[in-house]
Amino acid sequence: MGTSDFLFHLLNFFAPVFGVAVLLTAASGLLLRPTARSGSFWTRCAINAGAGSLAWVAALVLFGRDGKMVAYLALTLALASSEWWQTGGFRK
């Protein structure tokens, strides 16, 4: 496998994480009042993507392959928890 193939595989592996992170951050920005949001859009998106990437890689290591439904559940829970924490949901 060449370098370009490896990069394409890596980008395709993390594509669901980045896509869901951007969509979740955008939806949160539209649905929440401005005082509940903290930080810029891209900062929140990067934190969400980091949390989702950790869950995604943990699921890959734990199960030995990607694409399992439990991995998508872990991704969803990690992103939702990250966004909840960033918007101050723990203070309510």
Please outline the helices and strands:
Layout: H1 3-31, H2 41-63, H3 69-86
Helix pairs in contact: 1-2, 1-3, 2-3
Low confidence ranges: none
- Helix/sheet category: mainly alpha
> What is the H/E order?
HHH
Q: State the helicity in percent bands.
A: over 70%
- The amount of beta strand, in percent, is under 5%
Q: Could you tell me the number of beta strands?
A: 0
Count the helices. How many? 3
**Mean residue pLDDT:** 87
Q: Give the overall silhouette.
A: elongated
Rounded to the nearest angstrom, the radius of gyration is: 15 Å
Describe the sheet with the most strands. Answer: none
Compute the separation of the termini in Å. 50 Å
Structural overview:
76% of the residues lie in helices and 0% in strands. The chain is mostly helical and 92 residues long. Helix 1 crosses helix 2. It is elongated, with a radius of gyration of 15 Å.
Key attributes of the depicted protein:
92 residues; 0% strand; 3 helices; mainly alpha
Concise overview:
By secondary structure, the chain is mostly helical. Helix content is 76%, strand content 0%.
